Amino acid sequence: MPLIIHSRDADKDMEQILKTEYLKQPFSAVMHCFSSGQSLANTAIELGFYLSMSGIITFPKSHNLRNIFSKVPIDKILVETDSPYLSPVPFRGKRNEPSFILNTAKVGASIFSMSINRFSEITSKNFDRLFKKASN
Questions:
Q1: Spatial distance between the Cα atoms of 83 and 116, rounded to a whole number of angstroms
Q2: Which among 5, 9, 103, 111 is least surrounded, fewest beta carbons within 10 Å?
Q3: C-alpha angle 128-116-62 in degrees, rounded to nearest 5
Q4: Residue 44 has what pLDDT?
Q5: How many CA atoms within 13 Å lie on the side-chain side of 63?
Q6: Angle between helix 116-130 and helix 101-111 axes, rounded to 10 deg
Q7: DSSP letters along 90-119, please?
């Protein structure tokens, strides 16, 4: 089972912890609701972790976050709702619902210049690869 990591406002500390612990015993992980900087994204990618995009990616002022995700290998991307929080545009400020994930995925697809169907197929396969037991 992969480690689920939710890190906010602690990029340098998190980078150090991840590198130190990974050297002791390699593990798989997902950076849940990723909204950190490029350096932590790079560390996560170097360690083979997945980065999960939430509704934050749809916010008008999230240009930097979209740029960071554009540099992540597509086979390391996941999409999530983070329900009941962080509803994507145009539902921002409302209680997040699982059905809103399509709005987040559409922005993800645009970041990678692909159709929503192709993006959904890839991110679903990524989920299956990371959470093997869940997909059986």
A1: 21
A2: 9
A3: 95
A4: 98
A5: 1
A6: 100
A7: TSTTSPP-GGGHHHHHHHHHHHTTS-HHHH
As a CATH number, domain 3-7+28-135 is 3.20.20.140
Distance, C-alpha 84 to centroid of its chain? 17
Distance of alpha carbon 66 from alpha carbon 129, whole angstroms: 24
pLDDT at res. 135: 63
- The values of phi and psi at residue 87, to 5°, are -60, 140
Q: List all residues 6 or more positions away from 37 whose beta carbon is below 8 Å from its beta carbon.
A: 11, 68
In the chain, where are the structural domains located?
3-7+28-135
pLDDT at 64: 98
111/77 Cα distance (integer angstroms): 12
DSSP readout, 9-65? S-HHHHHHHHHHHHHHS---EEETT----HHHHHHHHHTT-EEEE-GGGGSTT-HHH
Check residue 136 and give its pLDDT. Answer: 62
The stretches in the chain having pLDDT less than 70 are 133-136
